[in-house]
Amino acid sequence: MVVTFRITARKGMLSSWAFRQIPDYVAKQDALRAKGVQEVIILAVHDGAVMMNWAKSQKTALTMLTFLGDPHSELTRALDLELTHPGPVGVLGPGRCKRFAMHVVDGEIKAVNVSETEDDPAGGNDPSASCADGIMSTME
Questions:
Q1: What is the pLDDT of residues 92-140, one digit of tens each?
Q2: Does the predicted TM-score (pTM) go above 0.90?
Q3: What CATH number is given to the structural domain containing 21?
Q4: Which residues contact 83 (CB under 8 A, 6 or more apart)?
Q5: Which H helix or E strand runs over 52?
Q6: Domain total for the chain?
Q7: 10, 12, 65, 106: which is deepest, by most CB within 10 A?
Q8: What is the span of the domain harbouring residue 82?
Q9: 45 Cα distance to chain centroid
Q10: Hey, how many other C-beta atoms are within 10 angstroms of the C-beta on 20?
């Protein structure tokens, strides 16, 4: 069982919520394991070098977290999770990924939580749906 979530960056800096989300998933590894989660994959529309540096800066070695880059938004588009709202796209640029958490079991998507509202299409004001507790609430 795998949980995947997305982090946001702008101009080489992790968003303030990424600094909270990643430690939240690290801190809740035992609870995630108790739910059967074996790995947490962190997805961002960036290349592998950026993702490796983020993993290093967040001190995620020896954790269940894996950082995955999607530099051309191919996976993002395949999952239909591309952020297309003109507000965030005007700030972040095109090809960005929505803030989400996904529960996957044996390659089957069991749940997808997207942190977005009409007033907050990027989910930055309340990303709780894509935090560890948010996705764990969808697990049986």
A1: 666 678 888 999 998 889 999 998 888 877 777 788 898 899 999 999 7
A2: no
A3: 3.40.30.10
A4: 89, 92, 96, 97, 98, 121, 122
A5: helix 48-57
A6: 1
A7: 65
A8: 2-136
A9: 10
A10: 13
